[in-house]
Design a protein that fits this description.
The chain is an alpha+beta fold. It folds into three domains: 2-141, 2-Layer Sandwich (Beta-Lactamase); 199-277; 287-423, Heat Shock Protein 90. The chain has eleven helices and twelve strands. Strand 4 and strand 5 (124-132) form a beta hairpin. 22% of the residues are buried. The model is unreliable at 279-283 and 376-389 (pLDDT under 50).
Amino acid sequence: MRRRLLVLVAATTTIVLVAFLVPLALLLRTVAAERATQSATGEAQALITLVATTDRAQLDAAVVQVDATSPADISVLLPDGTVLGSPATRTPLVELAARGFSATGDVDGGREVVVAVASGTGTRAVARAFIPDEQLGAGVAQSWLLLAGLAVGLLTISLVVADRLGRRLVRATTELAAVSHRLAGGDLAARAATDGPGELGVVAGALNGLAGRIVELLREERETVADLAHRVRTPLTALRLEAEALADPDEAARVGAGVDGVQRAVTRAIEQARRRGSGPGPESAACDAAVAVRERTAFWSVLAEDTDREVAVRVADGPLPVGIGRADLDAAVDALLGNVFAHTPDGTALEVALVPAGGGGAVLTVGDAGPGLPSGPAPRRGASGAGSSGLGMDIARRAAERAGGRLELGRSPLGGLQVVLHLGPPRRP
């Protein structure tokens, strides 16, 4: 931007200077030539009275004196062919003046001025002044150098001013971009300076307003999550008491584990909301995917027995470290298995596989023998064709992305939907 501004100013200033200085330079050359011509004409005309009133000797002395002091070549051509002063030939202009017509014209090597003079004998003499080209252009070169220096000075000043303006614009734009990148990275305390030039100050003010609105929305979200967590804890406490009152210890332990899972999910939601509002922080979360998948599939296997589902679990020997926290991975596995239980009929078989990935990390595959996804585009966040919230698949997708991986949908070997989570290795601090 700064370079383009300098090029634009340089081009514009150069055009203006050329349009102004070229005619001025030509005018100076014309004025110099006219000044030399007028000076020579005046000197030639000063000899008119001497030709008519003085004798030959005095006239000769006067012409020699004028010729010696004049930058032009001064001559007087008498009717008898005598030439006084500088040597001269009878040019067409001299012949014209001999017939009584004074004139000025350009000839080879300069400019000729002739003045017709009536002599005492009634014949006509000619006073002639020849101005060489170097006299016609005397002082023009110096004037042109002065104009060139003026042009260079004006161009330099314009470039310096443009550079300072461009530097200010670039600095303000760079700072504005840096603030926007900080906001995009989660640093909600970042604010842009509003004293930038022109519209950049307006944009900075709008960006600050947007950042303030984001902070306000996150605060409202945290308050909503906290309120929801407070409301959920009461029925969870009641459920825990009910579980502890069950006569079967195994059943009580299973229900209690489910209540603990809900409690952990609520706590995790609150922590995530707080983290979103507290700015960026280093992500060093990691866990053993093999342990997490075994534990979560063991939990869901109990429900699978109650619904007559055949579950095939193939988990590679660990450890299989992945770049995501245990709570996030548990939530992703629960979301995928929960979708199978929620959207396939009882008795539908499913399989869970976890294998190491090349280069580190792991690949988690969850497939079922259900009807699969409906035809059309893949479901987006908050949208579902089966009456659900549509967030389960998005939870798994975001978990994979936080681990530096991705989510893929396909056809399971069992005939239904297959979801593949690629989980990257832990990030180095």
